[in-house]
Amino acid sequence: MELQHEQGEIIAQRYRIINTLGQGGSGTTYQAEDLQTHQQVALKALSLHRMTDWKMMELFEREARVLAQLNYPSIPQYLDYFQVDTPQNRSFYISQQLAQGQSLAVL
Fold first, then answer.
1. What secondary structure, in 3-state letters, does the chain show?
2. N or C terminus: which one in the chain shows less Cβ crowding within 10 Å?
């Protein structure tokens, strides 16, 4: 799967992409800087153009709703859910507190 965003790109006039954290079946997760708070965040992106079926969208929206309700010290805090429309595509995003440390895949 090709990357949706490049380093330095600004999303929704708020998030600057720092690097790619990983790719999965439902999208790509980036390390980004929130330009309003100057905090580093995890920004998960799902492109309508790259979806293979509507179930992916349903699961992504459900993930955003569940994350918004969670409040536990060991779970990265949910920050935002939004979409960006362009003439070529519609993309959906979840912004979360960035969890420091290694990926579980590395461990």
1. CCCCCCCCCEECCCEEEEEEEEEECCEEEEEEEECCCCCEEEEEEEEHHHCCCHHHHHHHHHHHHHHHHCCCCCCCCEEEEEEEECCCCEEEEEEEECCCCCCCCCC
2. C
